[in-house]
Amino acid sequence: MKKSLGTTVHAMPTPVWLVGTYDSAGKPNLATVAWGGVCCSDPASVTVSLRKARHSYDAILERQAFTVNIPSNAFVRAADYAGIVSGRDADKFAVAGLTPVRSDLVDAPYVAEFPIVIECRLSKTVEIGVHTQFIGEIVDIKADESVLDGNGLPDPAKVMPLVYAPTNRTYYALGEMIAKGFDIGKELMK
Predict the structure, then answer these.
(1) Considering only CA atoms, which of 76, 72, 96, 74 is closest in space to residue 85?
(2) Tens of pLDDT along 1-56?
(3) What is the 3-state secondary structure of the chain?
(4) I want to staple 118 with a disulfide (CB 3.0 to 4.6 A). Which of 7, 12, 21, 68 is the partner?
């Protein structure tokens, strides 16, 4: 028997992404978001949701661009910090010991130390209650060679991305691979 939990946000896990932007003064900033994900495959697009009060909100609208920086679990402290301090009050890159890199493709910085970065051009905004959903068309994905598999694609076991459980505000490391997608389900087709 299932118990009703009401209309709260208990979807889990959510990604831990750091959104990179430049503010109106050109200062690089990071905002940690857990409300995000892939939203379209053609054109390849991701979405992140922010409240209007966030420093990154105006930056995305002004620059029409953002990056999604995927940290490995070694950067959990920096990821948490970037989500609890405002970029209006602190240089999050400097405090967290991270290096901003100017994208050649979009008007936003990315994090040199993180294994994967997704460079996005803002394609649409959607107002949803207290959050605005920013849909970014992917212009490029960059990955450290050290996290690529034999086919040249990111290997989750090497990336070691963080995931977040909003239910109890905790971070987790990605677990072990248990099956191949578009494969294990075929067993039920026999």
Answers:
(1) 96
(2) 999 989 888 888 999 999 999 999 999 999 999 999 999 999 999 999 999 999 99
(3) CCCCCCCCCCCCCEECEEEEEECCCCCEEEEEECCEEEEEECCEEEEEEEECCCHHHHHHHHHCEEEEEECEHHHHHHHHHHHHCCCCCCCHHHHHCCCEEECCCCCCEEECCCCEEEEEEEEEEEEECCEEEEEEEEEEEEECHHHECCCCCECHHHHCEEEEECCCCEEEECCCCCCCCCCHHHHHHC
(4) 68
Q: What is the pTM of this model?
A: 0.95
CATH top-level class of 14-189: mainly beta
- The per-residue pLDDT of the chain, averaged, comes to 96
Query: pLDDT confidence of 97, banded at 50, 70, 90?
Result: very high
CA distance readout (Å), 67 to 21, 38, 101, 176: 7, 14, 11, 27
Omega before residue 166 within 30° of 0, cis? no
Q: How far is CA 92 from the centre of its chain?
A: 16
Strands 109-111 and 100-102 come out as: antiparallel
Give the separation between CA 131 and CA 164, rounded to whole angstroms: 18
Q: Over range 143-153, report the average pLDDT.
A: 98
Task: Return the structure tokens found at 111.
Answer: 């994090």
Of 157, 147, 120, 112, nearest in space to 37 by CA: 120
